[in-house]
Hints:
nine-stranded mixed sheet, alpha+beta, disordered N terminus, 11 helices
Amino acid sequence: MSSRRVFRLAMACCVATLLSAIWPATATPPNIVLILTDDLGWGDLACHGNPVIETPSIDQLLDHGAELTRFYVSPVCSPTRASLMTGRYNYRTRVIDTYRGHSMMDTDEVTVAELLRDAGYATGIFGKWHLGDNYPLRPQDQGFDRTVVFHGGGLCQPSDPPENRGVYTNPTLWRNGQQFVADGYCTDVFFNEALAFIRESIRVQQPFFAYVSTNAPHGPYHDVPEQLYKKYKSKDLSQVVQGNEKMIDRTSRTFAMIENIDENVGKLRAQLKELGVAEDTIVIFMSDNGPQDARYVGNRRGVKGQVLEGGVISPFIVEWPGHVRPGHRDDRLAAHIDMLPTLLEIAGGSPPEDLKLDGRSLVPLLTQQNAEWPDRSVVIQSHRGAQPVAGHNMTVIEQQWKLVRASGFGRFQPSDDAPFQLYDVASDPRESNDLSKQQPEVFQRLRQHYGSWFDDVSTTRADNYAPPRMVIGSDQQTVTTLTRQDWQSVGSGWGNQGEWLLRAEAPGVVDVEAIYLKPVEGEATLTLGSTELKQRVDTTTTAVVFRDVAIPVGDFSLRFELAQGDEFLAPYHLRVTKK
């Protein structure tokens, strides 16, 4: 038995013992619904002062619940999701970007889904995972009993199967690893699937953890709820687009997706009440990063990808009947790394002592009027590239002070003239007055703290930023689809050539099928470890197959390209099927 498996079993016993000690046989731990939206900003809610959007259900959730008004996340999606799942900074988990093979979470990480499942919860994810599409990185490999997800970072991205047709309506999804075509708009589908899971959990009298992770309001914007789009198209959006009139149509489409989320939140809460479990269920609403476009963010500035306040602060609204006082607010510093210990405490337990966490439970802030909350520093850093760069696009946040180097998420390296700045965010949330010269001691203290943090997270593992490997030829996944989401590539954007880092746990034979979106012909080359195979494709086709390919045991890379004239064409997808 592997050391990882022994560790997991020990933690499962520990958590189960803790929960049983607090929740006796006659009681049931509370149900948990976690709603995580994609690219919804803090200011995209009516209850946060947005003068245009209508979000009555989320507003009501806030009226009946509590809010942590300074809840921080990463400026992009995968890092937030890794921290949320593990209670650890994403740089400890190998998740350092959102694509090109650097959005896969190490399988040694212990997820909140694994801990809750092992403690007796039914666990389900509905929507976006974005931490690995293939075994052993999938959500069903990481603690979720029920999975209804799309692949990669979003619908209409390169992980989509060709047959998805680039749509949000009737999308192609995967239910427990099996591909199917859903019926309805994607957000409606995810909430409906979550409700079916909830009903089944109630039927078998099992507490549930439902993680509803929407694709919306992430772009593209061509397929949005039509009637809601018309509604916002007819409104005056000039006051929320920060002077950019060209963004009015796109913002109308974004707001249509957000109001559709709100409708589903209302439906969910109504169903919980009808099913008789509303009083026994905690509902949490949050987002993964700031808004994808410059629009209303309250008295702040910044968008997705930026480490300014608008890019890294999220709504965090919690309804927990009997525990959270309606109308309760707390402005103490909280973050995505706090979710795992928070959910464990809500479930009645605490993290195993052997599990090193960066976060702390938020239950005191949610349930107590003046909770004791020791001062802390939260560090956030995200930028493009295969290796984090010290001091690049980062921030250190304290209750009063914030050190910022807003050097650009899209850059692999910071520009030499990108300054470190210091703000008193308690009194200057717009980050308009740099105090680095006036407060040199604070400035240097936070820079030193950042340096220690970076060294710490970067040495979590010996090869800390090497991507995890996908396993092929396994009975756990007999068909593995390799996409540009997970390749190590060259070129800009998603890349135009690349290879996949793989592992085989046993010798075997596979078929390798290269899928193209347009007919191709030419000389195909499949490189698998040290083996190179060639095949002449004389008839135009959209599928090139190498059959009966022997795979070695251990780690190796796989590459496929087709020479067509002067071009070398990488496939859209590469499908590896165990024989």
